[in-house]
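[[Per-residue structure]]
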Amino acid sequence: MATKLMKALDVAFGHPRGKVGALGGRVMAKVNARVEAHVVDVLAPTADEVVLVVGPGPGVGLRLVGERAAKAIGVDPSRVMLDEARDRCADLIVAGRVELREGTAARTGQDASSADAVVSVDNLQLWDNRPAAFHELFRVLRPGGRLVVSAHRWSLDVAEYDLIEEAGAAGFTDVRTSLQQHGGLPPAVQLLAHVPA
């Protein structure tokens, strides 16, 4: 029974697929809206910046970034989530402020030193190879670039100090974590890091 439940949850939230994945996307959009808004505020994108959004899911945070930055580029491995994000950000896509493509944290498809900031909300636990992902995110950021990652603490199978170590090993500096509480949700681990200028 537990295995069936885990598979159903994975189809809805982990690796969204089909109608169940689309339903999961709608749930994520509602439940995570406050977290997405907080993380985008922490990131503080400006009107001249390019921001890479890793795992935008249904596109709530992607839209918030696209409304503030020059360009928001969302990469997600789920076609269902890309469709949800495309619907949510349709006007910003037409305006050239949001772009979507298939990808992961470790394989963004982004050119080296092409983004001013990277943001990721509630998908760190799904990164297949965290060290490789941190290296990739470091590679795509310009000098002085910043990284903001947030994930529900309960979903992580890694200690915060290990995340700090992995990000530091990729080249990030000023790496720190904190616990954030958003309404009635369980606490989230927030990681902030920078690329040396």
Summary: Residues 18-31 form the longest helix (14 residues). The chain is about 40% helix and 25% strand. The radius of gyration is 16 Å. Residues 5-14 have pLDDT under 50 and may be disordered.
